[in-house]
Amino acid sequence: MMSDHSLYRPLRARLRDASGLAAAAAVSVAAAACSTSAPATPASTAQTAQLPPLKVVDPSYMDTTVKACTDFNLYANGGWLKRDTIPPAYSETGVFKDMADRNELVVRSVLDEALAKAKSLPDTSTEYKLGTFYGTCMDSSAAESAGVSPIAPQLASIDSITSAAALISEAARLQMAGTNVLFRYGPSVNAHDAEHYIADFDRGGLGMPDRDYYLNPAASADSMRRAYRAHVTTMLVLGGEDSAAAARDADRVMSLETAMATAQLPRVARRDPKATDHQMAFAKLHELAPDVDWAAYLRDVGLASPVSLVNVGEPAYYKALDALVAKRPLEDWRAYLRYHALSSAAPWLSSAFVNENFAFASRFSGAKALLPRWKRCLRVTDAQLGEALGQAYVAKTFPPDAKAKAKAVIDDIRAAFRERLLRLTWMSDSTRAHALDKLAKMNEKVGYPDTWRDYTRLTVTPGAFVLNNQRAARFEWERVAQRPGQPVDKSEWGITVPTVNAYYDPSKNEMVFPAGALVPQTFDPKADDGANYGSLGASWAGHEMTHGFDDEGRHYDAQGNLRDWWTPADSRRFNAQAELDAKQYDGYIQVDTFHVNGHLTLGENIADYGGALTGYDALEHALARDGRPGRIDGFTPEQRYFIAYAQSFRVHSRPEGLRTRVKVDPHSPENWRVDGPLSDMEAFAKAFGCKPGDPMVRPRAEVPNIW
Ligand SMILES: [Zn+2]
To answer: What is the pLDDT of residues 281-323, one digit of tens each?
Structure first.
């Protein structure tokens, strides 16, 4: 289970957002929802063949009327950007959508096979569960005729709350069914004992994607608040309230959530791991928030034995929440829970719910239409039962030699990063020794898990899909419930195999690259080194590796413990260079008056820069070792390296999505992920003959010298 305090930092986290952005961002499963649509038709290999293969470097994407030294992103991607139209159901197009489209056809064939066989399988078999989960999701007419009735018992249970104790019990039930209310609880890796899990309490419970939407005095935020209030009202009416009562209840929800938002830390402040590191005896949590029976809460969420130690991410939030639980009338809380229960179920209820949910989410994403139902159902099936379909996906897409070649590129990047660490002039030898040790011990997972998740304890039944979805959320909750105090499962994967994404987890000191990301356009075992090192090497492997040493990851040691292994002088030098980086990105205007936030995006920008530098070194080594090919498509290996790097960020976004991103996404918009790092690199200027004064050549004094 990943929540928004998770330390996973995917390269790009919008197709399947693990971080709780889902309430707003893009075309996530939560944002998408259903309307009446045609039943599933089997995906054939012919359909897969309808999508042309992707190339790691594709010259047809380029616009060579733009000078490489003026705007390299436009040079490498501008031809495609000019031609591209974003389909109505999407917030953005580009490399991630193109790869996901292809992966989704493969996954669809796996699901269609399971669906076709399900009737003849015992209901205990994993394939039955997979087929039935997907099949009940695809049944739009059942969802339409059921209306709100599948969750009527949940709503009745909320309406019967008459005490603070009952409020917390109900919140626990909702959380276990996958609804984000009041706060977030879950076992996580203990920051000071990375071999064991700890019970972790963090902030949560807002309906909009960030506290800023509640607190920002700007007119744009005010219009979002008005839209949210109207949306809450509509959802409550759909749930059965009359419109006057629903409007009053929407005010209660708004007032509660604004108070909750006020007590939460800003996103940038949370980048410092120490800001959310507050371990305490379990009894202290009772002192902090005395109006909640926390022992009862932990029993409610299935923890069999009491815990002695907990981490409270934001103590001030728990203090404030406690006061709200004690002082606000229970009818405020009932309205709040009712709205969130409806909102969380909405994507899987009748079309009135689906459309209202989508209309609100699209304010943040800019998408103009729902995704086809099969894509929405496929994505939720992957999110909930991903390891049940991962094996079949791997068999169809990822032969052992592709895995071996991807690993070889990643190993070369590791060797190049090691050389950089050895060469750094600003780092003392004692810090360097720790850094080298951390790099050597950094674990890598490539392709797919060694052992697959066991779904024996999951029940999937014919009937309302929304209930199957809640059962799957509960299954996941129960899977990890007893973890506090137990040894960490190092074999676990945080994203599913068909996902076009990757992450570095500092608490395990490991980087993870699923098979779904190790296909063209990211990587092709048959492509030239320039292409593969610029894409997989730099913007994936080098990027994730550098996260171990960015402004956040550097606070963790080789074992994953939050421990300062830097000398004070090295920390000062690192921070001074990081500030240069933040200043560089603060200067980038994204859309209208919306700027990139150089501190929110600092870790990702440092990782991009480290990746681009390291991948280049690895390419030079590979060319020296394997021989230098002639020009391909008219480009030298070095030029192809930079084009591949830029094309690995080939993305076209809607302005609504960009406005949301600069507020909540730690990744800079893609054009800056290209032009930012490359304009800091001498090797780039050399490859394209750029001169001082060209826009793609930043003055050396302003260039951060971190790696
Ligand atoms: Zn990243």
So the answer is: 999 999 999 999 999 999 999 999 989 999 999 999 999 999 9
Q: Minimal CA–CA distance to 11: which of 681, 666, 651?
A: 666
Instruction: State the distance from the centre of ligand 1 to the C-alpha of 14, rounded, in angstroms.
Output: 12
Q: Give the distance (Å) from ligand 1 centre to CA of residue 58.
A: 24
Summarize pLDDT for 663-689 with one digit per residue, the tens. 999 999 999 999 999 999 999 999 999
Q: What is the pTM of this model?
A: 0.92
| Ligand 1 centre distance from Cα of residue 611 (Å) | 10
Check if the beta carbon of residue 621 is closer than 8 Å to that of residue 412: yes
Distance between Cα 8 and ligand 1 center (Å): 9
For residue 502, the CA-to-ligand 1 centroid distance in Å is 8
Specify whether the CB–CB gap between 223 and 234 falls below 8 A. Answer: no
DSSP 226-251: HHHHHHHHHHHHHTT--HHHHHHHHH
Q: Distance (Å, rounded) from C-alpha 104 to C-alpha 229?
A: 35
Distances (CA, A) of 530 to 78, 94, 633, 646, 707: 20, 21, 12, 12, 21
Dist. CA 675–CA 665, nearest whole Å: 18
> Cα of 141 to ligand 1 centre, how many Å?
41
- Ion ligand 1 — residues with CB < 5 Å: 9, 11, 604, 607
